[in-house]
């Protein structure tokens, strides 16, 4: 049923069939064909890293693929194709500067030292607004969870939520831990954890363990 307060066309959802794997298909479609290995290395480095997400960005100059770091769609760090297959360039919005790295290893080392700068971004900038609405919006959002399995441990990472990962001995427990981590990140009452909506995405290791 259409929302009476909004025209039906504003509710239309678009699904992009880019082929499989969709990530590299998008890289080839919206970047330069010879940079596939560059995108693959970047995806290997950032997939599952808390707070990082990849999306297609449409602007006046065209459509591009972009990796971003931030909570619920905010963009504190950006990485996109800059035309050089031998380097990775990150834009740091807080310091208004671009930084180039010679490899994904160098990038991850820098991120390990700098992502903490935004640990309080959620509580300082987003939580007050949600608290004023009695946390109703937090309960209405469906959080996307990436799930993997390593040895005997389940690991869940919350997409678009920096520095939030959960660990547990079973799938049920790790999803419960992820919900608790989301509530904690926003400083919301712990009792809301069971009401947080999540959608789990399993990687091959998680599929094999189920």
Summarize the structure in words.
The protein is α+β, with helices and mostly antiparallel strands and about 210 residues long. The chain contains 7 helices and 9 strands. Strands 1-2-3-4-5 form a 5-stranded antiparallel β-sheet. Strands 8-7-6-9 form a 4-stranded mixed β-sheet. A hairpin with a 4-residue loop joins β4 and β5. The longest helix has 16 residues. The radius of gyration is 18 Å and the shape is globular. The two termini are about 35 Å apart. The model has no long low-confidence stretch (mean pLDDT about 85).
Provide a quick synopsis of the model.
The protein has seven helices and nine strands. The chain is an alpha+beta fold and 210 residues long.
Coarse structural class: alpha+beta
User: Percent of residues in beta strands?
Assistant: 25-35%
Question: Outline, from the CA principal axes?
Answer: globular
Q: Can you give the helix content as a percent range?
A: 25-40%
Question: Which features would summarize this protein structure in a list?
Answer:
globular; four-stranded mixed sheet; 26% strand; alpha+beta; single chain; 210 residues
Task: Please specify the SSE layout and strand pairing.
Blueprint: H1 22-30, H2 36-46, E1 52-59, E2 62-69, E3 77-80, E4 88-92, E5 97-101, H3 104-114, H4 121-132, H5 136-140, E6 142-150, E7 153-158, E8 165-168, H6 171-186, E9 197-202, H7 204-209
Helix pairs in contact: 1-2
